[in-house]
Design goal:
- The structure holds two protein chains of two kinds.
- Chain A is built from 15 helices and four strands.
- Chain A is mainly alpha-helical.
- Chain A has a single domain, classed as Orthogonal Bundle (ABC transporter involved in vitamin B12 uptake, BtuC).
- Chain A has a two-stranded antiparallel ribbon.
- In chain A, a hairpin with a 2-residue loop joins β2 and β3.
- The relative contact order of chain A is 0.18.
- Chain B is α/β, with parallel strands linked by helices.
- Chain B folds into two domains: 240 residues, 3-Layer(aba) Sandwich (Rossmann fold), CATH 3.40.50.2300; 149 residues, Rossmann fold (3-Layer(aba) Sandwich), CATH 3.40.50.2300.
- Chain B is built from 14 helices and 18 strands.
- The longest helix of chain B has 33 residues.
- In chain B, 55% of the residues are buried.
- Classes of the chains: A mainly alpha, B alpha/beta.
- Chains A and B meet through α3, β1 and α13 of A and β9, α9, α10 and α11 of B.
């Protein structure tokens, strides 16, 4: 037993595990030191948690686009961050027009639904066109080809939108109903945060229901298992792939509006960082897996929000929040060392094998 | 096997061709830029000109401008991206200045074009490298951002040009003994941040009577040095600095940094950074427990119409320190801008850009040697010295003298005269001097 172990463990394994253990140790020591210093009150932690959950909800919706497309085509759609940008960057003009004319204050629900619908429609159109024009002709090409195409499409879309609306910033006018906050036991929660968390949860559930419980969802899962076999069973594979991109676009468009509620300034490069984070979240949760994307996104959102103060403040690291991206990606490495397929990735790995 | 060898050979040949192609154009241009003009340039000009040919004795060479050729003055400004209003504003000002002098210097047209410096070290490097390869350039106006200046100035210096900046404010660009000090190849009309940081600290401590401050910078040269000057002066006056934090320029979620700052309960948060991070901090500070009522203050980097757009209603009461020129000068300039470009000047520092160009123009007029046929010869070192020794230049921002020392706010290379004022933002249309409103000058 011991001999087989010794034979199987290579130097790489030892180094990787050592890195993992070191990261874990820093996290634990840092956390203990921060909590013992008592610099932050319980309310501060709760406040950061709520913010982290809201952020995680947005990441989760964007991550859906990555994970659905990966599940079906085994490709990473790097242009998804631009699908995400296109919706809110277009809808900002409608939102501001509605708010200037006073409509948004009189009929906030209808107004917001209109803005959401426009954002979703634009993102969905971009996603479907992207698949039809950029990816479908390359479906049988080597894997690297669509990947490079995706990066090219990403730049193309960024600069098309820059050309359309300019490189400046556009700000969302937050409707009056969402401007307030409620206080629960000394903790102030903003209406926008509540709206984002509820909206993200609702959308996630709807997407999960579509994939899991409808006929179309069943067809999507069939195509993801085996395209040829699915085609033989009478499933229109092209249509299902288009639908998958459409679903990804819908969730990205909705995510864009929720993101704009949290950070109401949009411009043409706004998609890059959230896109990268959502992709990370999808990998963290196990790419190709819907609940995994949700879990990964929530974990990432929380780590980003709480991590810098919790892990590094107690160690005396100056300006820890500048390192929040580094922390998020270090955690990704940490988790992938111990679970290379992501947190919920195993089920998928088995079924695809 | 042979096929592979052949392929390898072909690759090697290709690589050598590419390398040769890259190598050949750069070597001669560098040679002409640094050494050749001193000895060879006049010799090549000689056959066509009059017998009493001009002999260039300048230490780093001369620019020769034939009778029908324009004088080439280039810019390195941030004319695209999130900070483009700053660069476009400066460029507009120079175009207005060129109109004001009738489009000509000493009977030669002015050719004015340039490169985007992107408000970053990478952008500054790219812009300066491109400019340095063009030996027709006489002088450069730029850069806007200190981060870009730090890498651009050495390249401009090597190329033999002189650069006058309208809006670099980082202290170490003119600080005696600093590695980044290339004066007299460089001069600036903008104030030194040693001044701006001190004025901000004095306003907060003496006028607002606040004693606990926190600062945030974004890792840029400008923001980091400015907040250091602020913190040092604030502590000197008797205040306490509760935290000196940092964010990254493209960060949107500021919750962790603001929570960390809130733990020290500061009365004022000073963040001399740029858009969009500045707008996110303004918005999110109002939502962070403990910072709801803290005074928020930035610097001239946040003096821009984009800020009102980005921060929305939360911009009300936001303070920035920024140059305060005379209201009448500003109004007169705004009229010219309105007439030529339509709309008010989109940022600050346009008067500085105007003055930067005028200093260069005066220096050219001072040192240029003109042949009988109209050919101009401009000694590069002579031009640098003339810019550097500018004295009592009556500019739009005040009376400028570039070679004097006023400890610790002005060193040789700092031409600035204008004072710094504190401006307050209101929610509404951007339109100085009403919004932002000038509320205090020292």
């Amino acid at each position: 037993m011991l001999r087989t172990w010794r034979q199987r463990i290579t130097l790489t394994d030892i180094v990787v595990w050592a890195i993992g253990v070191a990261i874990g140790a820093v996290i634990i020591i840092g956390t203990i030191a921060t909590l013992r210093s008592g610099k932050y009150s319980a309310n501060t932690w709760l406040d950061l948690t709520v913010k982290g959950l809201a952020l995680g909800g947005v990441y989760a919706l964007i991550a859906m686009g990555y994970t659905l497309v990966y599940g079906i085509l085994r490709m990473i759609n790097f242009a998804h961050s631009e699908v995400f940008m296109s919706g809110p960057f277009t809808a900002v003009f409608l939102a501001n027009a509605l708010s200037r004319s006073g409509f948004m204050d009189r009929q906030p629900l209808i107004g917001m639904l209109l803005v959401l619908a426009l954002s979703i429609a634009v993102s969905m159109t971009i996603a479907v066109l992207l698949e039809r024009i950029a990816y479908r002709p390359l479906r049988h090409a080597p894997r690297l080809v669509p990947l490079i195409t995706a990066i090219g499409a990403s730049f193309f879309l960024q600069y098309v939108f820059r050309g359309l609306y300019g490189s400046g910033f556009q700000a969302y006018a937050i409707p009056k109903v969402l401007q307030g906050s409620i206080t629960i036991g000394g903790l102030r929660i903003f209406n926008t945060q509540i709206a984002v968390i509820l909206g993200a949860l609702g959308m996630m559930f709807a997407l999960y229901a579509i994939v899991q419980w409808t006929k179309t969802g069943k067809a999507m899962r069939a195509v993801s298992e085996d395209k040829e076999a699915a085609a033989l069973m009478g499933i229109d594979v092209d249509r299902i792939i288009s639908l998958t991109f459409a679903l990804g676009g819908i969730s990205a468009g909705a995510a864009g509006i929720l993101y704009a509620l949290l950070f109401p300034v949009v411009n043409f490069i706004m998609g890059f960082i959230p896109g990268l984070k959502a992709f990370t979240a999808a990998v963290l949760g196990g790419i190709g897996n819907v609940p995994g994307a949700f879990l990964g996104a929530m974990i990432l959102g929380l780590i980003e929000s709480i991590g810098p103060n919790l892990f590094l403040d107690g160690l005396g690291v100056p300006t820890p929040s500048q390192l929040k991206d580094a922390i998020a990606f270090t955690i990704l490495v940490f988790i992938l060392i111990f679970r290379p397929t992501g947190i919920l990735g195993e089920r998928m790995a088995q079924s695809k094998a | 096997m042979f096929k592979r060898l052949n392929a390898l050979l072909a690759l090697l040949v290709l690589a050598s061709l590419v390398l040769a192609a890259c190598g050949s154009p750069t070597t001669p241009t560098q040679a002409t830029a640094t050494m050749a003009p001193a000895t060879e340039a006049p010799a090549t000009e000689a056959p066509d000109t009059e017998p009493a040919a001009f002999e260039c004795t300048d230490a780093i060479g001369c620019v020769d401008i034939a009778p029908d050729e324009p004088i080439h003055i280039a810019y390195a400004l941030v004319v695209s991206g999130p900070n483009e209003s700053l660069g476009v504003d400066s460029r507009n000002a120079i175009e207005i200045a060129i109109d004001d002098i009738g489009g000509q210097i000493l009977g030669h047209d002015v050719r004015f074009d340039g490169e985007d410096e992107g408000c970053s070290a990478e952008g500054g490097q790219a812009a300066a490298t491109k400019l340095a390869a063009d030996p027709t350039i006489v002088a450069v106006v730029g850069t806007n951002c200190s981060s870009a200046a730090r890498v651009a100035i050495p390249l401009i210096d090597q190329a033999g040009f002189v650069m006058v900046s309208s809006s670099n404010t980082a202290p170490d660009l003119t600080e005696p003994g600093s590695d980044n000090n290339f004066v007299p190849a460089y001069a600036r009309v903008a104030h030194n941040d040693n001044l701006q940081g001190r004025v901000a600290a004095e306003y907060v401590y003496n006028e607002l009577k606040l004693t606990k401050a926190a600062t945030i910078h974004d890792g840029s040269l400008y923001a980091d040095q400015l907040q250091q000057v602020f913190a040092a002066r604030f502590q000197e006056l008797g205040g306490t600095i509760t935290a000196q934090e940092a964010v990254s320029p493209d960060q949107t979620d500021m919750s962790s940094v603001l929570s960390s700052i809130a733990a020290g309960t500061p009365e004022i948060v000073y963040f001399p950074i740029f858009m969009p991070a500045g707008a996110f901090i303004i918005r999110q500070a109002k939502q962070t427990p403990g910072l709801e009522t803290a005074v928020l203050m930035g610097a001239d980097g946040l003096y821009s119409p984009d800020l009102i757009e980005g921060a929305g209603e939360d911009v009300e009461g936001f303070l920035v320190s920024s140059p305060a020129a005379g209201a009448d000068v500003e109004a007169e300039y705004a009229e010219k801008h309105q007439a030529k470009f339509g709309g008010p000047p989109p940022s600050t520092f346009h008067l500085h850009a105007y003055d930067s160009f005028m200093i260069i123009k005066n220096a050219i007029e001072e040192v240029a040697v003109q042949d009988a046929d109209g050919t101009l010869h401009i000694g590069r070192q002579a031009l640098r010295d003339a810019v550097h020794n500018t004295e009592n230049h009556d500019g739009l921002t005040g009376v400028l003298t570039c070679n004097e020392t006023v400890e610790p706010v002005k060193y040789p290379g700092d031409c600035a005269a204008a004072g710094i004022g504190v401006w307050e933002y209101h929610f509404g249309e951007f339109g100085p001097p009403a919004n932002p409103e000038l509320i205090w000058t020292p």
